[in-house]
From TrEMBL:
One of its GO terms (molecular function) is 6-pyruvoyltetrahydropterin synthase activity. Belongs to the PTPS family. SUPFAM superfamilies: Tetrahydrobiopterin biosynthesis enzymes-like. This is 6-pyruvoyl tetrahydrobiopterin synthase. The gene is Pts. It is an enzyme of class 4 (lyase). GO terms for biological process: tetrahydrobiopterin biosynthetic process. Zn(2+) binds at residues 21, 46, 48. Gene3D superfamilies: 6-pyruvoyl tetrahydropterin synthase/QueD (3.30.479.10). One of its GO terms (cellular component) is mitochondrion. Keywords: Lyase, Metal-binding, Tetrahydrobiopterin biosynthesis, Zinc. It comes from Struthidea cinerea. Pfam families: PTPS. Pathway: Cofactor biosynthesis; tetrahydrobiopterin biosynthesis; tetrahydrobiopterin from 7,8-dihydroneopterin triphosphate: step 1/3. Involved in the biosynthesis of tetrahydrobiopterin, an essential cofactor of aromatic amino acid hydroxylases. Catalyzes the transformation of 7,8-dihydroneopterin triphosphate into 6-pyruvoyl tetrahydropterin.
């Protein structure tokens, strides 16, 4: 590859936020919710220290040597993740979750959608949400076809 060829790279940055939630679906009875979600359906909720890794991709700029300025990515993540989610009750403080069960999968979709509004089009590659050290969700904006 010649020095003038475009080089693609992925750049990741992580943040950690604390939030509480209750896994509960309005479309299920209390008994069905308890059976499905178990102790995570506790009416008083429970909390997590979530770790989020955001990965962007693009060409390495020949002048700056960067895919994206990390300071800009940090600011986007502050606005899209930390401000709406940190130290919040997801179900009560975040309007998105008033009708969406606050699973880690849906937290990842929420973060993806927020970042998509801020980042240049086509740059966002992956959102990885660690609910615990054992439970991780990866979302890449993929959707299924509605039949």
């Amino acid at each position: 590859m010649s020095p003038r060829s475009a080089r693609l790279a992925r750049l990741s940055r992580s943040v950690t936020f604390s939030a509480c939630h209750r896994l509960h679906s309005k479309s299920l009875s209390d008994e069905e919710n308890l059976k499905l979600f178990g102790k995570c359906n506790n009416p008083n909720g429970h909390g997590h220290n979530y770790k989020v890794i955001v990965t962007v991709r693009g060409e390495i700029d020949p002048v700056s040597g960067m895919v994206m300025n990390l300071t800009d990515l940090k600011e986007y993540m502050q606005e899209a993740i930390m401000e709406p989610l940190d130290h919040k009750n997801l179900d009560k403080d975040v309007p998105y979750f008033s009708d969406v069960v606050s699973t880690t999968e849906n937290v990842a979709v929420f973060i993806w959608d927020n970042l998509q509004k801020l980042l240049p089009q086509g740059v966002l590659y992956k959102v990885e949400v660690h609910e615990t050290e054992q439970n991780v969700v990866v979302y890449k904006g993929e959707q299924t076809i509605v039949k």
